[in-house]
Amino acid sequence: xxxxxxxxxxxxxxxxxxxxxxxxxxxxxxxxxxxxxxxxxxxxxxxxxxxxxxxxxxxxxxxxxxxxxxxxxxxxxxxxxxxxxxxxxxxxxxxxxxxxxxxxxxxxxxxxxxxxxxxxxxxxxxxxxxxxxxxxxxxxxxxxxxxxxxxxxxxxxxxxxxxxxxxxxxxxxxxxxxxxxxxxxxxxxxxxxxxxxxxxxxxxxxxxxxxxxxxxxxxxxxxxxxxxxxxxxxxxxxxxxxxxxxxxxxxxxxxxxxxxxxxxxxxxxxxxxxxxxxxxxxxxxxxxxxxxxxxxxxxxxxxxxxxxxxxxxxxxxxxxxxxxxxxxxxxxxxxxxxxxxxxxxxxxxxxxxxxxxxxxxxxxxxxxxxxxxxxxxxxxxxxxxxxxx
Length: 389
Fold this sequence. Notes:
The chain has two domains: 2-54, no CATH class; 66-366, Aldolase class I (TIM Barrel, Alpha-Beta Barrel). It contains 16 helices and nine strands. It has helices at residues 2-7, 16-30, 37-46, 49-64, 105-113, 135-148, 159-169, 173-183, 198-204, 211-223, 240-257, 283-296, 307-310, 312-317, 335-338, 349-358; strands spanning 67-77, 121-126, 153-156, 185-187, 228-234, 260-267, 302-303, 325-328, 362-366. Strand 2 (121-126), helix 6 (135-148) and strand 3 form a beta-alpha-beta unit. The chain is globular. The two termini are 31 Å apart.
């Protein structure tokens, strides 16, 4: 790969030897050979961006061609009151404060009623760890949604919320997940994973469940037949080693359960948080994380750009750096925007279609489980579940 020789050197702060080593790793990836955790670190540190992006895009197009998927979805944040005090979260408010907002089940169901006729609707539900929102409330909410719109895909409650429901109800993890599944939950969101580094978690989210607990709950969900997404919060002072460790733990669990549908890097929104002085990552570094994720996570089907937090320019460019999915219409996201996200609070279907087309990709609508993916001609697109499946 000639580009490495041209771009190696002082401009990128690496040696030719390191670039050549990264070149060999990328050659393995192009041939769909699994790369190691140590090789992942080397790509993050030393790979020339153009070669890295080329390789990730090659893999992406082998899997999905020129198509980028999206869903019509509605985000519901039922409460911003939370017992955790994560330093990176601007969404959390104290109970009783004027900024506190706790939605009633009735008000949420009234909003769902307005969307009764939308086809392939995905409803995404997350919230804070609120003592006034119990497992019983969660089950009643899900059942109420299914009564109004039985064909909705409900992606609800992160592993952090499931842990909370288990603790406050006295019911086992297994039974909590089983009850949610029986009520109508189709999948779990990937939030709460943050980054698995124990050192970072102790600094920014000491009250939150640790990475091992998050993975254990995900494993239980997968064993019960409920798929989920996986995320990684980045831009919080993490090292390349910590990124690689996070990806490696996800890949190891996926080898066992095959339950992760997609991986979503989430760019930290620092405004209105105690961590607002952290240095912002360049767009190139952000795109490198998408590319390395596509290369390393050979058993997770989809790499998603959550445009709400990444920004629209990243969403456009990342489709050439390994990303094959752009989340959805979202309406109406609150968590990232409380942290200072400058993106729209939601997009229409036409707007997200234009965003995908602006990157030279073909927009394809999907449902919340990456099924029934349709183009305008009504043809379905086969789901890719990952090399390991």
